[in-house]
Design brief:
With 341 residues, the protein is of the alpha+beta class. The chain has twelve helices and nine strands. It is rod-shaped, with a radius of gyration of 44 Å. Bound molecules: zinc ion. Zinc ion (ZN) binds next to loops.
Length: 341
Amino acid sequence: MTDQLYDPSLGLQALAHVEDLAALEDWRVAYLGRKSELMQAFGALGQVAADKRRETGQLLNEAKRQLEQAYEARKDAMSRAALTAQLERERVDVTLPGRPLPRGHAHPITQVIQQISDLFRSMGFQIIEGPEVEWEHYNFTMLGIPADHPARDETDTFWLTDKMLLRTHTSPVQVRSLLHVGQPPIRVLVPGRVYRNEATDASHEAVFFQMEGLMVDDRTTMSDMMGMLSYMARGVFGQERKTRFGCDQGFPFVEPGAQMSIDCGVCQGAGCRVCSYSGWLEILGCGMVHPDVLRGVNIDPDRYTGWAFGLGVERIAMLKHGIDDIRLFQGNDLRFLRQVG
Ligand SMILES: [Zn+2]
C-alpha cells in the first residue's frame, strides 16, 4: 500500500454501473467512506517515506477529487432522470375534455312557487312565511271558523295538543301579517307547506303546498284582483291564456267569493279529457275579504277593502306539466323529476 499508488479508475468504473440512489449510497460508502481504501491510504500517509510523502498526498487528493466529482455528476444525472420520469408519469393532458358535472334543477313545486312569487313581487307584493305548527286560534277561530263550524269537520287535522295543530292552510299567516303590519296598504304573498289528515290518492296528499295572496288598500276592487290574477295566470301558463271568473264560495272568509279558470291549453278550449270536456280549468279560489275579518284585525272596513286568493301549488304544477298523480311530487323518483325540468 505504501509503495503502491492509489488508482481511482476502479471506483469510476464501478460508478458507471450504479443504477439507483440506494446503490449510489453504497458506492459512496465503499469508495469515499471512512473505511474506504482511499481514506485508509490517507491514514497511512505517515508511513510513506518522507521524500515521497508530498507527491503521494497530491496524488491521493487528485484521486479523491475525481471520485467526488464523478459522484456528484452521477447523483445530479440520477435526480434529473427521476424528475423527468415523475413529470412524464404525472403529466396532465390539457387537451382531454373535462368530466361533465351533472346539472340539477329546482323541484317542480319550488319552480312554481318561485315563478308565482316573482310575478307578484313585480306587482309590489311581499313574500312572507309563517309557522307550520300553528295555534287553533290562528288556523280557525280568527278566520271566522269557530269550534262548532262545519268547516272544522271537513278539514281533518293533525292535532298536536288540544290547542296546537299542523296548519291546514296558509291563511293563518295572512292573519299574522295583518296583525303585524297593522294598517294598509298591505300586499303579501304566502307560500308554504300545509297538512291534512287524510288518505292519499292520485289527487290527495296529506302534505302539500299552498299559496295565498292578500291585498288591503284604499278601496281596492274586484277589478284589481281579476287583473292581477290574470297577469299571474298568463305568466305561468302562457300569454295567450284566457281567464274566466265564476261565483264560488269555496275559499274561506271572503264575500263575495269567486273561482278563476283558464282556458284549457291542451285542447285550446274545445274540450278534452284534461278539462273534463268543459274547455276550462279551475286554478284558484278568491274573493273580497269579509268586513268582519278586517274588523277583527282593527282595520276599518268602511275605509279599506281587501281581496285574497288561494291556490294549490301541486295543482298548478300538474296542469302546467300534464302530471296526473299528485303523489309523484313527494315520491323522490329522479326519473319523474328529470322530466319536469
Ligand atoms: Zn281541454
